[in-house]
Structures are given as structure tokens and as C-alpha cells.
Amino acid sequence: MPPRTQPRYKITWWMRLQSKIRYLHTPLDLRGSVVRLRHDHRHPYFALFKLFIVQLQMPSRNWSYDYPLPEALAPKDIADNETLFDRHHPNIFNLRYIPIWTIRDTPLRAIYRLYEIFMTREFVLLRLECEYMWRHSGRKWSLRSIPDPCDPDPVRYAMLASIVEELVRAFNWRLQHGLRRDGNHVRRSIENPWPKYDPEVTPPWTASVPPIQEEDLRELPLEMVQNGQLILEEEGCESFILRNFDAPTRYLYTT
């Protein structure tokens, strides 16, 4: 009896098209975004749609697709209050990896998040936010382009200015060691131990921000105030001490 032959498997044009659609990748990474949103949302597709349209500004000459600044948290409210930070920025750990959210995010919003993390004293979270800012290259995310927030709260305003100044030092330290914000790092060698780089520049508005006054600290927890200064943790950071407060900066200097 002759061996039985199986019919040849035929790959149709429709199967080829389905395969291309399945592995299609776009800069917005919609499929990956849905996978991440599925961890925190019952309806991930609707959650993704809301990221596109939520908080859209009215059409005007200065129209922007960026998210506006959220309501700023007072120092007395966010002090040692990580729960409030999590409630104010739900799902922030996944959102940092969703392209449409990062496109609409701004460096000033990130600076406010850094301020809130400093006040919660959960300092290990600083590294995640700093790395997130570092990975965003381009003119929009240049530290020099961060606008003056003109914050009415003197404690918050002083901390925002000092955080920007310290980020400039931290980013230039990384650049000096060959790291680059666009990922095209330069390998150091004996012949080229300190690669050339275009340094980050401090925005001019920080120079005019006054230090924190003792009377500005009256509503903060007593354990945070020492000798009329706001002490989140003693480290001796020059940018912070000049504005009458101190906090650790080691998590900004990571590689």
C-alpha cells in the first residue's frame, strides 16, 4: 500500500495579513500600552482612549496637547504622606512606560512629582522619576526649557528651584561620564577619559527664587524643622542649603 501523503499546508494572503497586523509596531505602542493598562483597569481600551482625550485644552493660539499641571499639594499635606502621593498620581509606575501619556507629560509636571517625593521622604522613588526624565531627550525635556512655575507657596517654590538646579548638576555628571540622554552612550578610554558633551543649563528663573523663611515652616511637622530649617534628611546639598532646607540627592546620581 503506497504511503499516505498529507495535503500541502497553504498560507493564504489573509493569513499573511493577519500575521503582519499581529506584529505591527507603532511609536505609540498601542498593544503594549493595553497590556500595561490591563493590570490596573477593568477596561484597558477605554482607559487608553481617555489618555488621548482627557484634559484637552480649548482651541486657541497657544493651544497645547500637553497635560496641564495637576493641583499642587501643600507641603503640610504631602509631608510624610506617601498614600496621598499614590492617590494623586494613580498608576504612575505603569504610565511612565505608556507612550501617549509620556508624550503629553511635561518636565515641569515631573519636577512637581520630585518635590512631592522629597516631602514624603520615600527617597528611593526619586531614582525612578529622575531616570524617567533622563530618558526623554529633545528640546521639550531640556532642563533649560522648564518654565517658571511662579508658585505662590514659598516652601514649594524654593524646593522646585533647588531641585531643578540639582538636576542640572546630576545630568551633567552623567554626561561627563559618557552617558547620553538619547541612549547613544560614549565609551570612556585612556585616550578619551572625559568625552565632550553639550551641558545642561539651569533656567534663569531659579536665580531669583528666595530661600525658605522660618515662618513658612510653622505648619510642617516638628520633626522636619530644626533650627528654623526644613530638614528632610541631613546630607549637606549646597543647592538645598542655600534655600534653607536639606534632603538627600544620591538617588539623582545613578548610572
Structural Rg: 24 Å
Count of helix runs: 11
Shape: globular
Helix and strand composition category: mainly alpha
Written as H for each helix and E for each strand, in order along the chain, the element string is HHHHHHHHHHEEHE
Name the poorly predicted regions: none
Strand content: under 5%
Mean pLDDT: 90
State the share of residues found in helices, binned by percent: 25-40%
Oligomeric assembly: single chain
- The number of strands is 3
Strand order of the largest sheet: 1-2-3
Note the gap between the termini. 70 Å
Q: Main beta sheet, described?
A: 3 strands, mixed
Could you characterize what this model shows?
The chain is an all-alpha fold and 255 residues long. It contains eleven helices and three strands, in the order ααααααααααββαβ. It has helices at residues 13-22, 30-37, 44-53, 75-78, 82-88, 92-95, 99-104, 107-120, 125-134, 154-176, 238-241; strands spanning 225-226, 229-231, 245-246. Strands 1-2-3 form a three-stranded mixed sheet, with no helix packed on it. α11 links the parallel β2 and β3 (245-246). α8 packs antiparallel against α9. It is globular, with a radius of gyration of 24 Å. The N and C termini lie far apart (70 Å). The mean pLDDT is 90.
Quick structural gist:
The protein is an all-alpha fold.
Give the tags.
three-stranded mixed β-sheet, 255 residues, single chain, mainly alpha, globular
Secondary-structure map with pairings?
Layout (H helix, E strand, L loop, with lengths): L12 H10 L7 H8 L6 H10 L21 H4 L3 H7 L3 H4 L3 H6 L2 H14 L4 H10 L19 H23 L48 E2 L2 E3 L6 H4 L3 E2 L9
Helix pairs in contact: 2-3, 8-9, 8-10
